[in-house]
Write a structure and sequence with these properties.
Structural class: alpha+beta
Order of helices and strands: HHEEHHEEH
Strand order of the largest sheet: 1-2
Length: about 110
């Protein structure tokens, strides 16, 4: 990751709500999405509505959570995929691995 990408990612995670969303996506287990006709299908991650419910307790998606999800997506931290009438969210494994590698790096350079 470039310094600019790292800065963008850490800036996105610097907001308490976005950090809570990131943690929610990190900790969530596989979920199922329910279609209008009652069919159940597997989902690779929670829907936007489920994330909103976890973060705010609201039954509907709020514009605030939508804005935070957008910032996380633009920072490359999450993916959002439209599946029918649902949007499924997940952590971006590539970016998370790059952040983990950066945080685990040791350099021999001192101040």
């Amino acid at each position: 990751m470039t310094k600019e990408q790292l800065t963008t990612a850490f800036k996105a995670l610097g907001d308490p709500t976005r950090l809570a969303i990131f943690q929610c996506l990190r900790d969530c287990c596989p979920t199922a999405a329910f279609e209008d006709d009652g069919r159940i299908r597997p989902a690779d991650g929670p829907t936007v509505g489920e994330v909103c419910c976890q973060i705010t307790g609201a039954e509907k998606i709020t514009s605030t959570v939508s804005a935070h999800l957008k910032e996380l997506r633009l920072a490359g931290l999450i993916t959002m995929e439209k599946r029918g009438k649902f949007v499924v969210c997940a952590l971006n494994p590539t970016t998370v691995a790059e952040l983990a590698a950066f945080l685990g790096e040791k350099t021999n350079a001192c101040c």
